[in-house]
Amino acid sequence: MTVAPEHPNCTLHEVAVRFSPDGTPMAIRHDGGIWMVDPDIHADHWFTQDAAGDPRREHWQVQAKLPTAGAELRTFTLGREPLDAAWRLESIS
Q1: How far apart are CA 70 and CA 84, in angstroms?
Q2: Is 70 helix (H, G, I), strand (E, B) or coil?
Q3: pLDDT tier, 52 (very low <50, low <70, confident <90, very high otherwise)
């Protein structure tokens, strides 16, 4: 079964991402909550280029949940432009 993104137009939403010393996302601040990344689930990390081969956009896909009892794990896809410190939420499913 495929789950559609909760916020299909969320590429404009900036999120704060806290990283571990090795550069892996640990937590995401989104929509008033802090989502904790599950360290036991593999995080995907990749780069994309535009059609002209210009600088690569960086992406992370992680599994995270709110730190409350019974909270469900959600898939966050994050991206940022080259030389941009701000991460943007591409999707949540």
Answers
A1: 35
A2: coil
A3: confident
CB 15 within 8 A of CB 29: yes
Average pLDDT, the chain: 87
Angle (CA) 8 75 51, round 5°: 60
DSSP string, 36-53: EE-TTSPPEEEEE--TT-
CA distance 31 to 61: 18
pTM score: 0.81
Q: Which residues contact 44 (CB under 8 A, 6 or more apart)?
A: 59, 60, 61, 62
